[in-house]
Amino acid sequence: MDYRREIDGLRTLAVVPVILFHAGFAVFGGGFVGVDVFFVISGYLITSILLAEIEAGKFSIVGFYERRARRILPALFLVMAVCLPFAWLWLLPADLKEFSQGLMAVSSFVSNLLFWRQSGYFDTAAELKPLLHTWSLAVEEQFYLFFPPFLLLLWRGGQRRAVTVLSLIAAASLATAHWNAAAHPAATFFLLPTRAWELLMGSGAALYQVRRGRPGIPLGLQQGLGLAGAGLVVFSILAYSEATPFPSLYALVPTGGALLIILFAWPDTWVGRLLGSRVFVGIGLISYSAYLWHQPLFAFARQRSLERPEPWLMALLAVATFILAALSWRFVEKPFRQRGHLSRRSIFLFAGIGSAAFIGIGAAGHFSQGFAGRQTLPQEILRSFERTSRSAE
Questions:
Q1: Lower CB count within 10 Å: N or C terminus of the chain?
Q2: Residues 203, 259: contact at Cβ < 8 Å?
Q3: Residue 337 belongs to domain spanning
Q4: N-to-C CA span, the chain
Q5: Crossing angle between the packed helical segments 5-23 and 219-239, to the nearest 10 degrees
Q6: pTM of this prediction?
Q7: Which residues touch 270 (CB under 8 Å, ≥6 apart)?
Q8: In angstroms, how far apart are the furthest CA atoms of the chain?
Q9: Tens digits of residue pLDDT in 175-217
Q10: What is the DSSP letter of 123?
Q11: In this structure, are residues 305 and 90 in contact, taking their beta carbons and an 8 Å threshold?
């Protein structure tokens, strides 16, 4: 698969609105759709790589999960580790207990299930959860637990069969999401069955390009379709809000926009040149780390504030997010992706030990009721604080 700079630039169009939405800037009321754009990008890239390996006879399920471990875990473990002392110092016992549960869930890639049971994504209480954003990582990893071997089986039956089956699954997933968005909003938002269609939309783009490559239509039409795609994404960011039923048919706007960009915004188009620019690509390269850092920074700031933090503080924390992201991309993400630094055996050992350590810490926090004894304030005052906090939510 040839490298496409504009796809990294598309990551910027996904991550920046998510961060500004979580920072509380009202103009980005639909910034949460950036996660949906990420799902389309992920489905496209992963499927493209898998198809290239399958056709070359080099597909390896162990190799696939090795790449996922190198890509996901080092930066994730770093952010979780940095959260630990701040959680210990600043969180009340009930909040620390929930944070500890999050540590276990994130390490097991089931945090979407945990947050589904705890609160809705748009609830005030969700703003205070440092690990809330990891729900999307859990959705992806649950999807990729089954997708590679399933795609291999489908591909052996021919491309037409693969396209048909995956299209039917995507349609069923979208229909389920739309019908349940109002009745069961939390489950629809957090769970894989109602999110799979977004990943499969990206897979569809990869299935198209593996045989046909770039669409053979006039450049002017490609320009228009690329602009339409960018317009759809930007429109949903600015026009959607927490009141928008999601992910329902409304989610077709940002995901459809991402799909149009992937299919038609090539380097010689206006949108392709913009997304392939140095600034967009640079932010896109650190987008994963930026996504990991932003929620803990915002959540701990809100935990420490008696009132809602001022916009200037959240803006500074958004800037700090990208500084930390650049550092963790340079010194954590890049080295771990290079096989010369760590062997396959070492990366799996790192994954196992790291996951076990965080699960152990989380279990200790859970069963100790958030290490209630560590607080120096009288328990009656603590309970009063907790009651006040819960009533405010």
A1: C
A2: no
A3: 5-392
A4: 48
A5: 10
A6: 0.93
A7: 223, 226, 227
A8: 73
A9: 999 999 989 999 999 999 999 999 999 999 999 998 778 888 9
A10: S
A11: no
